[in-house]
Amino acid sequence: MSLWFWIIAALVAIAALARVGLWAARKLSGNAPRFRDMSYGVAFGYALALAAIAAGVWLWMKPGAVYFRWAVMGFAICAVAAYLFRLMGRHVGPESLKRQFRKMPLTAAFGILVIILYAVVAIFAGWIAPHGQEAVLGAANIVPGGDPAMGGDPAFPLGTDRIGRDILSRLIYGAQNTVGLAFATTLLAFFLGGALGLLAAVVGGWLDQVLSRGVDVLMAIPSLIFALLLLTIASVWAEGARGLMTLYMVLIIAVIDSTRVFRLARAVGIGIVVMDYVEAAKLRGEGMGHLVFREILPNAMAPLLAEFGLRFCFVFLTIASLSFLGVGIQPPLADWGTMVRDLAQFINFAAFAPMVALAPLLPALSIAVLTVGVNFVVDWMLHRSSGLKS
Amino acid sequence: MTPLLEIRDLWIEGRSDEDWHPIINGVDLTLGRGEVLGLIGESGAGKSTLGLAAMGYVRDGVRISGGSVRFDGLDLIHASTEEKRSLLGRRIAYVAQSAAASFNPAHKLIDQHVEAPVRHGVQDRGESVEDAIELYHKLRLPNPEEIGFRYPHQVSGGQLQRAMTAMAMSCRPDLIIFDEPTTALDVTTQIEVLAAIRDIVDQFGTSAIYITHDLAVVAQMADRIKVLLRGDEVETATTRAMLEHPREEYTKSLWAVRGFERPEKPAPGPDSVPILSVDGVTAAYGEQVVLEEVSFDIHPGRTVAVVGESGSGKSTTARVITGLLPPRGGAVRFEGAPLPPGYRQRSKDQLRQIQMIYQMADTALNPRQSIAQIIGRPVRFYSGLRGRRLRARVDELLEQIELDPAIFRDRLPGELSGGQKQRVGIARALAAEPRLIICDEVTSALDQLVAEGILRLLARLQDELGLSYMFITHDLATVKAIADEVVVMKEGRVIEQGPKTAMFTPPHHPYTDLLLSSVPEMDPDWLDRLLAERGVEALGEQAADKM
User: Fold this and answer.
1) Which Gene Ontology cellular-component terms appear in the entry (chain B) (predicted)?
2) What ipTM did this prediction achieve?
């Protein structure tokens, strides 16, 4: 009851602040157009933002809010890193690249930076990681932070898990396993869904009907449960062979995700097929290959690339979820989803030992940062492609 | 008395990439009460931007960088949003080019009509609905009692344009801005809309700015005309003075465009084999029959113009000829030999002989291919040329269409102007070395000067290469300029056909007569005369009342 009272009281205070602030701004600025034409809704938004900042400062001051302070600091570090990265891009490299960087919003620069970092880590995991991903190194449950007073060990800056494997090394190898597999899966899904979707758009008729209804059937089943079901069946066929199991997982997720790509490719393709230049190519007597790959695909590229980014995130999350559930990437291979599951019980320590609870949060954070980064880049690409049209 | 609208030294800039470039350079404009001002110019001249600025409004990415706009004494550029809101819709109204795209398809016409009067508190809903019906009467809309209760898609284009005019009139504004209100309409519909607009503007003594690129239209509507060229004013004069004695060279060139006319070629001999004959073709989309027993011949080296309103089956005929729509009955013969009905069954050589040029050059050229790729592909596809010889052929084609190969070879279509794009479309058709080219409304999306250039180019290519053209158009001025023979179509049938000179001299078929008489002439009295001849009763009386 009192919670409701506080929420309503705060809203009323913000509303009053907006009213008073707007009136004062108009008076003080001598009715400048900026404030004169500002509606009350906009003023309320500003007041709300002010209140949020005040709440943030208050929370920062509170001694217990360790994670909040880390989050704010992390955010600031990311913003500065992205800014520096963009600054570098604007002054280094070929002219065409510089021009891209000049128009780039900060979010996109952050996304690109994240993707580059992850790619480097994934490709050179073997050189970067201090220990092997499967190596059991003795002491178990070392706390992250590397501070002996807190139960850490400088040799393992992010600590070790329950059977004494180095978390930092497993995180680095996890990038290779999780991101690499997700990339391969998405590529496969795109090849399958994109080709069939464009084909359905060009040919139309019964082929389009058969493919589209087939896709409808696959899409009607909840994808994670469907994947679980198929993986369970596949695990019987694989008879415990780890490599084979991973291959099956890639194929199953690729097929399920290709349905979404199919839908998009078909929708975009249908919009392009009716263009006069496609008609001109048809009347010239061009074959299917030329129509799809020369006339249609280049014009469908922008939305497909954007979808590639989004799809990559979803595939990546699916693999992590399946691994969390125990049917994805099989131990002892390091994988972020599996790591979250293995370290999950430490989250209970969050209230009194923030450092201990960090262990399961690190792989989760790795997933989150990559997802956010990829989405930033996708947003930017979508914006650019829509801007080109107008 | 102060003028209703006074624009002084107005500068407007638009943003592209990082830079601001000028759109309007210091234009003055004065509009008296009850006066109609015509704004003309090519596309890109800044007509629409100036028209919108008269409402104190600029589009996104555009800003007013100097000057003043005063409406009835109020400075619109510095007015607050509240002040502008109380004017727009009530005292200043806007009629857009495409009513079909400007009405919200989810609401009935009447609901959109009453919005302005109800919001501005001029009338309540009931009064406004009654008033709307009265306005529909005045604008001579069919079935005025009920038409407002339909959705936009249930009403034809010309009727929508009139409904939009009624909507602009709903608060009896002092000023209406008409932005090319009849450009998208057929000539026969255009007449009705023009008459209705002029009539209602006269009746209520409304001031108006009438934006168009069609001189003959503006001559009917405006008291004064202002000519714009790339954001600069060329000249302003009363309509009659401007028509009779244009001062500036640019204005004269605009006037002279309609002068291009090619003499008709002598009729083909009795044993000339037509290059293409359409023989009793009947075609249908599903159940709906769109072509019935269409027959005509095209003889080598001649131009046959197919004319008619939208929906008359002109473009469908082209689709049957190219094989995109196999006919239900009848046949298409090429040099006497029947062509297979569908394009998939035709041989490469049969496809090569007939090429098309499209209306919208924007959608006809692949935006991701360079000009050299677009033109080079058919050359390579049909003749197998490669490497240096392919490049030489592409350059030769570009020179034929009067574009400098060194400049244009590697450009993308997006970097070309409308006229240049249309030329590339022509080059792509020529690349196949065809015998017959079907031109589907190739000039209707272009400015008059540019369109004339395209027509001259097509005429020259015909003389040089001995091509035959099938020219689909709704514009009779184009027909006059380029055709040897004319085929008039209506509702999927051929109404009349014959040599051009015969078609343009009476007696005509009644429908041909209607089409011909509906083409606006460069004479301010033309609309009055025409309406008097057609005996539009109400209008004549009202005009007499005003005298």
Assistant:
1) plasma membrane
2) 0.77
